[in-house]
Amino acid sequence: MLGVGDAIPEAAVWQAPREPVELRELTSDGALLVFFYLFDWSST
After folding, report:
1. Is the Cα dihedral 27, 33, 5, 22 positive or negative?
2. H helices of the chain, where?
3. Which of 1, 3, 23, 28 is deepest in the core (most CB within 10 A)?
4. What is the reported pLDDT for 40?
5. pLDDT of 2-28, one tens digit each?
6. Does residue 24 contact residue 8 with C-beta atoms inside 8 Å?
7. Distance CA 36, CA 42 (A)
8. Spatial distance between the Cα atoms of 28 and 37, rounded to a whole number of angstroms
9. Residue in 40, 42, 31 with CA at minimum distance from that of residue 2
10. What is the DSSP letter of 40?
């Protein structure tokens, strides 16, 4: 977990199918909450 003022890592996430986006690009307008839901692509 990052604290207030911590730099975000250089990483890309999928915004939509075949649409990667850099985390820094998503935070250019302000704060960002990222939630990972692991079960969308699994059989559980």
Report:
1. negative
2. 23-26
3. 23
4. 65
5. 788 888 889 898 888 899 999 889 888
6. yes
7. 13
8. 24
9. 31
10. G
